[in-house]
Write a structure and sequence with these properties.
Oligomer: single chain
Mean pLDDT: 96
Helix content: 40-55%
CATH superfamily of the largest domain: Type I PLP-dependent aspartate aminotransferase-like (Major domain)
Order of helices and strands: EHHEHEHEHEHEHEEHHEEHEEEHHEH
Number of strands: 14
Bound molecules: pyridoxal-5'-phosphate
CATH class of the largest domain: Alpha Beta
Structural class: alpha/beta
CATH topology of the largest domain: Aspartate Aminotransferase, domain 2
Low-confidence stretches: none
Number of domains: 2
């Protein structure tokens, strides 16, 4: 073993691209005005903000005024769902919301709170063993009251990509607003909102080599929304608060780079991902792929191992210099199975043993070879320590 560390957790966060750091620096150092101020400092900051908005709009293929900057992907999801749900209720409607159990907690917990605390009706759609939601399933659960539907572009834990254009089409046939959490997809999947037809789309910069703590929400013109954070009516009245200009500049630069280099990165990721999947499934008994084999994020390989606690495995891997993640949370030494893995039909003996390996721009074939040297022993050690469900 060398001491070189291998980072395979790009779905959790990516390093910031050096070109993004360079683009942001002047907005910490020199151009620090408040973009709403009338003087030159303010005007320069506002110009940078609007250039960033234009860049994002060009990539999403929308108008700049349809881009709302937020503090993260979670806030973007919250604003989309709460904003559209509250506006529908304000219009006097009895509101029904639809999502699915595999969404990020920024979506599921928002829908749960709207249901349990604020009395909205909601449906969590059934998913298949790959974590797919079909347009037919969606259609059969929409009723006359369905106002907002939120279904993710790509899953963070199992990598499955949903047929968003078809799902948005069904939502629109039935008169509902369609939101997609594209946080994992950005940089790897086409985000053109005219092609997909979505009304609301969330992204977060730290998933595509930008800084943490900044996101964006696309809001299609004409979508009726209420703000969830009120104040000075920044961001087209939908998100009050002085904009974080350096981070917004960073988000736009990172998205621009990720989009212009997408083909090359996607080819690189796909090769590494397929190497990993092939090696693990052929060489490791008691391992299964989770999520779709074909409709899958290029950077994302995820597995379940029978009769292990993923947290033990992650510690074993970390000791060998490999950073990965799982879907199950460890609360005071008491492991809980991944809800996502349970929802796609795995039982506890598998759902505690989820492993996500997500590759990135710096990942090499040698890194994958190193993982394959280390992983079988790490899984065996974790299985020895397994105390059962
Ligand atoms: N949605 C998905 C699918 C994610 O994977 C994440 C982060 O892991 C988020 C939302 C939340 O983004 P942020 O960390 O910017 O709040």
């Amino acid at each position: 073993m060398t001491n070189q560390r291998i980072y395979l957790d790009h779905s959790a966060s990516t390093p910031v691209d050096e070109r993004v750091v360079e683009a942001m620096l002047p907005y910490f150092r020199e151009t620090y005005g408040n973009p709403t101020s009338v003087h030159r400092y303010g005007q320069e900051a506002e110009a940078a903000l609007e250039r960033a908005r234009q860049t994002v709009a060009d990539i999403l293929n929308c108008q700049p005024r349809e881009v709302i900057f937020t503090s993260c992907g979670s806030e973007s999801d919250n604003l989309a769902i709460r904003g559209a749900a509250l506006a529908a209720r304000q219009a006097g409607k009895d509101v029904h919301l639809i999502t699915q159990p595999l969404e990020h907690s920024a979506v599921t917990n928002t829908v749960k709170q709207l249901t349990e605390v604020f009395g909205f009706a909601s449906t969590f759609l059934p998913v298949d063993n790959d974590g797919q939601v079909s347009p037919e399933t969606l259609r059969s659960h929409i009723d006359g009251k369905t106002a907002v539907i939120s279904l993710m572009t790509a899953n963070n834990e199992i990598g499955t990509i949903l047929p968003i254009a078809d799902l948005a089409g069904v939502a629109h046939e039935m008169g509902a607003v369609f939101h997609t959490d594209a946080v994992q997809a950005a940089g790897q999947v086409d985000l053109d909102v005219q092609k997909s037809g979505v009304d609301l789309l969330s992204i977060s910069a730290h998933k595509f080599y930008g800084p943490k703590g900044v996101g964006a929400l696309y809001v299609r013109e004409g979508t009726i929304m209420l703000p969830i954070q009120t104040g000075g009516s920044h961001e087209n009245g939908l998100r009050s608060g002085t904009q974080n200009v350096p981070l917004i500049v960073g988000l736009a630069k990172a998205l621009e780079i990720a989009t212009s280099e997408r083909e090359q990165h996607v080819a690189h990721y796909t090769g590494l991902r397929d190497l990993l999947i092939e090696a693990i499934l052929t060489r490791m008994p008691n391992a299964r792929l989770t999520g779709s084999r074909t409709e899958r994020l290029p950077s994302h390989a995820s597995f379940a191992f029978k009769d292990i606690d993923a947290n033990t495995l992650l510690m074993q891997l970390d000791m060998k210099g490999i950073a990965a993640s799982s879907g199950s949370a460890c609360k005071t030494g008491n492991p809980t199975p991944s809800e996502v893995l349970l929802a796609i039909g795995l039982d506890d003996s598998w759902a505690l043993g989820g492993l996500r390996l997500s590759v990135g721009r710096q990942t090499t074939d040698q890194d994958i070879a190193k993982v394959m040297e280390v992983l079988p022993d790490a899984v065996a050690a974790a299985r020895q320590l397994w105390i059962g469900t």
